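4.2 Preliminary Data

To establish feasibility before requesting continued support, the project team ran the inverse folding procedure on a target of 179 residues. The structure was first converted into the token representation described in Section 3, and no sequence information of any kind was made available to the design step. The complete token record follows.
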């Protein structure tokens, strides 16, 4: 029988889909006492704080297909040290979890940091690009709306000015009917 981890090497960077827009990342640690174990960073259920967990690969997959990603790994001693460091920070409630924020941590940043020493996330980068385009679109809308309001105001003032000048002309050209 083939298992989820048959083709995975220890310290593999893995992911599974959460929804159409987001994936969940972890590190396959290998077979430990007969169980295929994955390390993950996730959010606590009751807050935005992060927690580190060790799961079986079946629990991590949550019924979804797992994909191994290419990743240049550092020295095993450094990997263990970074994992210990991250676990201590999470345990002391010094890490906040956010899928799209570069100032907090997400599962991909944690997995890549442990394996490579770099806190990077394709999901955070995608959010930055998308959010930037949304801000540009909002700015364009605001400018368009502002231009329309200014245009309407000028039309209103011009019409008012026209009516006032027309009224002045009529009052200056009254015909004397007494003659």
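Position-by-position output of the design step:
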């Amino acid at each position: 029988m083939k298992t989820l981890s048959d083709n995975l090497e220890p310290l593999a960077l893995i992911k599974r889909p959460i929804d159409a827009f987001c994936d969940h990342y972890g590190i396959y640690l290998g077979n430990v006492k007969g169980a295929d174990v994955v390390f993950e960073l996730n959010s606590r259920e009751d807050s935005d704080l992060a927690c580190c967990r060790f799961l079986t690969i079946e629990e991590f997959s949550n019924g979804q297909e797992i994909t191994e990603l290419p990743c240049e790994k550092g020295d095993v001693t450094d990997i263990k040290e970074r994992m210990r460091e991250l676990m201590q920070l999470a345990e002391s409630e010094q890490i906040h979890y956010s899928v799209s924020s570069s100032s907090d941590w997400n599962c991909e940043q944690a997995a890549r940091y442990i394996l490579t020493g770099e806190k990077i996330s394709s999901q955070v980068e995608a959010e930055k690009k998308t959010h930037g385009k949304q801000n540009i679109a909002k700015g364009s809308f605001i400018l368009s709306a502002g231009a329309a309001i200014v245009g309407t105001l000028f039309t209103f003032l011009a019409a008012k000015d026209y009516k006032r000048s027309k009224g002045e002309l009529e009052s200056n050209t009254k015909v004397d009917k007494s003659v």
